[in-house]
Write a structure and sequence with these properties.
The complex is a heterodimer of chains A (114) and B (106). By secondary structure, chain A is an alpha+beta fold. Chain A contains two helices and five strands, in the order αββαβββ. Chain A has a five-stranded antiparallel beta sheet with strand order 2-1-5-4-3, with helices on both faces. The termini of chain A are far apart. Chain B has 106 residues and is α+β, with helices and mostly antiparallel strands. Helices cover 42% and strands 31% of the residues of chain B. Chain B contains two helices and five strands. In chain B, a hairpin with a 4-residue loop joins strand 1 and strand 2. The chains are: A alpha+beta (114), B alpha+beta (106). At the A-B interface, helix 2 and strand 3 of A face helix 2 and strand 3 of B.
Chain lengths: 114, 106
C-alpha cells in the first residue's frame, strides 16, 4: 500500500493544526513552538532564530524537570512546567513524542482584555 | 536591626511559613538561603536533602534559560506539575521558597 511509517516522523494532522491555531489566536499568546523528542522544532509561530533558541533551551530544561520529578518520587511523572518571568510566561507541555511550548504574556504585561 | 526587630521579624516569618504549610493541599515547604543551605523546612531530613540537591540546580538552570533567551528578562516563578504533586518555586534575591502541594485544579 504505502511505505512503512518511519517511527521518528510526527505528522501534524488537521485536528492538531486546529488546536494549535486555537491556542495561537488567544490574544495573550505570543508564540507556539512544537518540538519533537529530539529537540527539533516541527511547528512554530516564532521567527527562526527564536524558534531554534527556544527549542534548544526548553527541551533541555524539560528534561531536567522530568529528572527532578522522578528523583523526588520515582513513581511520579512530569505533566507541565510553567516558567514565569518579568516579561512573559513560558508554558511547557511535555509528551512522549513531542513537547509543546507556548509563550504568553503575564497578567501584568498583557492588556485588559482576556 | 535591633534585637526586638530581629525577634519580630522571626515571629512574622514563622507565622507566614506556618500559614503557608497549613494551607489546603500543601504537603510542605522548604526555604533555601542564598548560600544554598536549608533555612526552614517542614519535611523530614531525607526528603529535604533530596529537594535541596535537586531544586537549587534546577532553579539556577531555569534562571539561566530565561536570561539566555532575553538578557533583560529575569525569572519570577516556576511551577512544575506532575501527576501527584505541584512544585512551586519562588526565587528571590536572598532565598528560594519551595512549596510542594497537590496539583491544583487549573
Amino acid at each position: 500500500m504505502g511505505e512503512p511509517e518511519k517511527p521518528t516522523t510526527v505528522s501534524i494532522t488537521n485536528q492538531v493544526e486546529q488546536i494549535l491555531r486555537r491556542i495561537g489566536t488567544n490574544s495573550k499568546v505570543e508564540g507556539v513552538v512544537v518540538i519533537n523528542n529530539e529537540g527539533i522544532p516541527i511547528k512554530s509561530t516564532l521567527d527562526s532564530t527564536s524558534t531554534v533558541q527556544y527549542s534548544a533551551e526548553i527541551s533541555q530544561l524539560a528534561d531536567r524537570a522530568k529528572c527532578l520529578v522522578r528523583d523526588l518520587d520515582p513513581t511520579n511523572k512530569l505533566t507541565f512546567v510553567r516558567i514565569a518571568s518579568k516579561k512573559h510566561e513560558i508554558l511547557v507541555a511535555p509528551d512522549i513524542d513531542y513537547i509543546m511550548i507556548v509563550l504568553q504574556k503575564t497578567k501584568k504585561t498583557g492588556s485588559a482584555e482576556d | 536591626m535591633t534585637y526586638e526587630g530581629v525577634k519580630n521579624y522571626r515571629a512574622e516569618l514563622e507565622e507566614t511559613l506556618k500559614r503557608l504549610s497549613e494551607h489546603d493541599g500543601v504537603q510542605g515547604l522548604v526555604v533555601i538561603d542564598k548560600e544554598g543551605r536549608v533555612s526552614q523546612t517542614t519535611f523530614d531530613q531525607q526528603y529535604t536533602k533530596k529537594i535541596l540537591s535537586n531544586i537549587s540546580g534546577f532553579t539556577s538552570q531555569t534562571r539561566n534559560v530565561v536570561r539566555d533567551l532575553d538578557p533583560m528578562n529575569d525569572l519570577s516563578f516556576v511551577r512544575v506539575r506532575s501527576n501527584k504533586t505541584e512544585i512551586l518555586i519562588a526565587p528571590e534575591e536572598d532565598y528560594i521558597l519551595v512549596v510542594i502541594q497537590q496539583p491544583s485544579q487549573d
